[in-house]
Task: structure prediction
Amino acid sequence: MRKLTPPLRPLALAAATLCLSVQAQTTPVGGTLSEVTVAADAVGSFTSSNVQVGAFRDQDPLDVPLTNNVLTREVLDAQGTNTLHGALRNTAGVTHAQIGNSTYDNIAIRGILVENRGNYRLNGSLPIINLIDTPLENKERVEVLKGASSLYYGLVPPSGVVNFVTKRAGSTPVTSLATSVNNHGGVDAHVDIGRRFGEDDSMGLRLNAVAGQQETGIRNYDGDRQLVSAAYDWKVNRRFTLKADVEHYRKDVSEQAAITVPTVGGVAVVPPVPDNKTNLAGSWQRYNAEATNYLLRGDVVLSDDWSLVLETGRAETVRDRRYSSFAFSNLATGDGNLTILFNNGNRFVNNNQRVEVTGRLRTGAVEHELTAGYTQNERWAYSGTTGSSATVAQNYYQPVDIAPIDRVIATTGSISSINDKGVYVFDRMVLSPRWQVMAGLRASDYTSATTTTRYTASKVSPNASVMFKPRADTTLYASYLEGLEETGVVSNVYFNAGEILPPAVNKQYELGLKTRAWNKVLAQAALFQIERPQTTEVSSGGTPATSRIVGGLTRYRGLELSASGEISPRFAMVGSALLMDPEIVQVGTSNAAELGKTPENTPRQTLSLFGEYRLQDVSGLSFNAGAYHVGERPVNNRNQAYVPSYTTYSLGARYRTRWDGHKVTLQANIDNLTDKDYWLAAGGTLLSTGAPRTLRVAAKFDL
Result:
């Protein structure tokens, strides 16, 4: 793939030169450093007063009758994270699924996969494609809306929607340079520039650029990544505002091999977890991907009470991949085979449009906040060209280097498309200062097609909620939602191979409490139940002997707790916990052994806690620590084996000061403090390990 951003070395050299120039400006001719002024600048918050996701845009979290979490810029900065899982580990129920994190984060929430082409959104709207690490350097925060969200987003699984909110130019000019290095040799540089300009500062532009050399400590792993992005806004007049976002990012790295769950006598077993630096693949087995996202939004003020939103966007991701998985032939000796797949030009495109009207009106004593809109999401995918797979000998306990293999990439791939259109209406009825009732409907028109098959469906999905506010800072709520999700195309191992299965209707019930009664801490508690239809197997009466249909049902019941914010002026925290009772409650005739079992890769409990203490005696200095626990998870729906639970720890420190009038932040963070070996991901008959201990040292200069 053509690299569209500058290579790392010139940019890193420029960053180093700029750092030296800042130091030179503060050094007199005599060689004595000028005085360094220590001052504690205002810091951000670990909590947010609004969300930008779904039908609840610009709402206070207290007014959202669903579980939602916001990871603010301050949390991301304190943890020194720039990955999706690094952010989402702070929310309850988040686990990795199937693959490790060397290429991108494949995430499940509450045991349900977050679909990589529909559940990830940019600025609350555009469905971006999570098949390459989404950079966080140009994001202001990451939001998670848990559960069913089909009213606003169409056919998506009820795991939740992950929303990335981009940085924008504010009233204060921004010019910052940041750089970091880790103990494995990884290095990156980041430039962030924001300005307002034009008459009365009517226009704003925020530019971000990142280049980095990727090293994680994993054997046979190396690579690089880049990002360039721009966020523009223009207040044309008092009635019309225009916003535009564009971002392009790429990543070219070695892909760590996945491990196929071995079986003994037809029963799945979990092998000993290998050293966290193990990679059974060769460094030449690359994952080379790039993504480009465009989003254009216009806000029109129609009157004092009514407004119109027009949005259009496009997301495109292209990748070349040399994916491999290891399968045991002898569990005792570790002998087995590494199967390598060769794929070029795998391409995914999402085109998204939205028209939405919002406003207020009153009927008698009831005030209505109405939202009505139309959305269309066209998704197109090309599987790419492939070469014949390769199989080479490998040993699990004593890996050998895999010599490079060439393949003729000639076999043409296939094209599939999805057109998901919908009309929706949502009414928030304010009955009194204490009582609100919300109700919504979405009428969906769905078409899915491959080169040989086509499926269409229409469905109306309702949702309803009641909220009671015993006091201004506390909300009690009850909600019911129905959602739609795709169920896919039947694979070749079944009698009805190639059939596009109909969308499934999932149902969600939730009772919750949200409060800010204690300082600035937002605390949430929710009881939920999700009923999710599943594909299952039934006898076909032919060859092959089974067919795949939508006929199973999994029920997820749980209690979710979370809290985030400033407990005191010196201490901030973000924490979450999930206690869940997931169960497969309905199966087909060929899946009887799954009845009553826990869905694969679904933990019954997850816990996370991160806190930062800002010292009073040393202005600008803070220390932080975190703990992240994931309970044991079954490797398949029959629960034949479980990957053990694990807990990882993080530790960090930040020092904010001023150097010759410029803000400077020096920082160090350690992840996986104890260098634990653990299974990070399970599911889909695959296992993947977590990353080794990593120390990252960073510096940021605000010029």
